[in-house]
Each structure stands twice: as structure tokens, then as C-alpha cells.
Amino acid sequence: MASSAEAGAEQLGLGIKGVKAACTAIEREIAAGTTPGAVLGVMHEGKQWFYSAGYANPRPKQGQPVPVSKDTLYDCASLTKVVVTLPLILQLIDEGVLTLSTKVSNILPPFGTAGKEELTVGQLLTHTSGLQADMNLHSQGWGREQMWDAVLSAPLVTKPDTEVIYSDLGYLALGCIIEKVLGMSLEQAVKERVLDPLGMRHATLTPAPEQAGRYAATEYEDTIQDHLCGIVHDEKARALGGVCGHAGLFATAGDLLQYARMWLAQGAIPATVRPETGGGEFRVLSRAAAITATRTHTGHIHGSNRGLGWVLKGDKMDASGDWMGPGCYGHTGFTGTSMWIDPELDLAVVLLTNRVYGGRSSSVAQLRAQVHNALTGAVAW
Prior knowledge:
Radius of gyration: 20 Å
Number of strands: 13
Oligomer: single chain
Largest sheet: 7 strands, antiparallel
């Protein structure tokens, strides 16, 4: 570990003490059984470094234990919201197709019931719609059409714009909007508009379970009598076919750092990533979209600080730790994934774990804070 941390510190221009501390924190949680393995990806001033430890699958049904590598694909869970759904919606706003005040019911008429007639795209993005957080779709014996009917007809549980309720249902609806407006699947849209332009070459919404060795295994599933591996963990996404607006993305730490690089550049892709541009700027998002998405839209709601999709500093779901600055933003995933970006420090941190491997009681909340603190502190050295 020491030599790897030293190499990372030198490569990134960070203090060795902080990089070592981040690696030690990961090793400590693996030893404690919090997660079987982890990959850390760090970008500072455009330079990348990766650290991996433990196992992607310690006890596969067949074969030997599978160690983690920097190319291990993790079930990103709710990182899907900000890596897939958010940029596609922002692009449609850039293109003049949508606005933040577009009524969802104008595009999805079945949504315009049960008090939801006036709900907007912006309210879904910021989780201020008043929709419930979750819904059991997978154990009702419903077909796909019945599941979508249940999602789109769900009533409000609180008055819009009065509370932040982190809602998968809102992002399921946003995924439907994308497909309806673009006339293509969510998978095709994100591949053509985000993954391919950014060079996120491993990222996918349709994993290949037969290539199980590439994926970090998640929770044990009774129906297959094995751990899920290359199969989406989220029950709603799985029941709906795996491709959804709230969950379903599988990606490596390198893929996610490519995405973070675009946000650090306020929507642009450096010419080094897209040499075919001849050194010119290539944009996935407008600068205006990137700036607006990362400023607060919930200042009127006590205890919340949400951007468009992103969690901002001080929100109840803030996982940035103690040292990242007031302009930082990020997101987490239920399976144990996270991505946090501090533009002031030109720093992005991706931490991928499969903490649900042994069940849902393990938490990596403290690990995230420890890793973020160590690396942020290392910037000042």
C-alpha cells in the first residue's frame, strides 16, 4: 500500500500523508468486513490515480475469489441519477426542448393525476415534487405496464416545494420523459450523448452477467441462490428490465472520473480526451447548465441544500466530509458508491464499494468522510 500511495501522491501533486490515510481507511473497513473490496479514483488538476483493494467477489459460486482492480465494474445505484438522467435532461434544456418549468404532464399525460398536474421537471430534479420516496414494484405480481402505471399515477405525500423527499419515482418519470422526447431508449440516449462523447468506454446500462468476473458482486439473492453479479441490485430497476432513470448504471472508477472531469470543466471535454476536435472545445453541457445545476435550488427548505440532481454542502445527504469547500457537490449510491467534486480545489473523488455484499446493514458513511477529509487535506500540502 505504501508504495502505491507514494506513487499516487507524486502523480497527483498531493501530500503523501493524506493519500496514505485515505488508503489506510479503505483497508481498515475491508478488514472490519464493512465491504469486501473498494476502488478509489482521484483526479487533481487533471491528473488521475487509482487505488484498489480487496475482492470484487470473495465467494463466487464457481471458480476462485475475484480480486478488485481499477477496471472492476460496480453497480452505481443512484449515481445513475446524476450520471445518466441529469445530463440528458440538461441537454434537452440546452436544446430548447424542455425548461425547468415544463409540466411533466405535458409530456407524460398519465402523470397528470392525483394532484400532480402542475409538477415540473425542475421539481423532479431537486426532489421537491412531494412524491413518495419509493414504491414496491417487484413483489406485486405486476407486468411491466402495470408497474409503470403505478409509478406515474402515484399520489403526492406532501405539498410540492415544501420538503425535500429523495424520490426514486421522480427520476423514473424523468427517464420516461427522455425516452418520449428523444424517441429512443434511455440506454441508447446516454450512450450516444454522454458515455461515448466522454470516453466512458466501460460504462453500461446493460451489463453482461456471463462476464461475471468484470463486476463487483452485491447482495445475495434467494431467487438465484447467489450474489448478484452483473445484475442490477435495485429491485425496481430489475423488475422494469434494468434500464431506468434512477438506477441501473454499471461503471468503473475511471469512467466516473471522466464524467467528473467534464463537470470540473463546467460542461466541456478537454481536447486531450477528444483529439479529433483538433484542439477545439467540445461540450456535453453548456456552461450555464453546469453552473445552474451546482447551485442551490432549495434554500427555502430548512435543512436541505440541493442542486439539480446534485447534493450540495450542508444537505442532510452531504457525504463530502469536513474539509471540502462550500462549492463542492456529489452523490451517493445505495450499493456503496459515491462521487464528490470540489471545483475550488480542482479535485474529484470516486469511491466504489460493494458494501451490500453481506447485507444492507453495513455503512460506508464514515469511510466516505474519512477518505474525503484525507484527500482534501492533502491538497493543501
